[in-house]
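Morning F.,

Quick status update on the modeling queue. The single chain you submitted on Monday has been processed. Sequence for confirmation:
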Amino acid sequence: MNTQKHNVHKSDEDRVAASVTTAGEPVGSLRPSSLEILEAFALILSAELVLKLRGLSVLLHRIRCFPVSPRETPEALTVERTCQALNRATIYYPKHTICLQRSAALTRLLRARGIPARLVIGFTVFPCKGHAWVEVNGRGINERYFTGDYKVLVKC
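Structure tokens below.
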């Protein structure tokens, strides 16, 4: 019987799951913290105010100029946890949020966590409607609707 130990390389997910935050919750946990939910709430509010007071062009400019931070955790965990924080924040938001608000907030949240997210705005001709969503690596995230039918107007 061979009892030799082999050096096994852990994946990012294994390393994150093995580490623990100061609160005692695993870093790899998908449950967002209260602070993450509050940050998402503030960005939803910010997107609404910018849209109402300054307009769409200013909102898009701010998103284009918002840099992607260096990544600290694996992408899959970060994306899922950030989407959950945003979804929880919309529960507490006093008004119905539109897709543009949610997408603008999610894009900024993901970029702040090192994920190169892109805000996409598209439309369909029949029936005539518009929609905004977030893409990471060309794939729509946190989306309830199929976005393949939309013609893309803006990506930033």
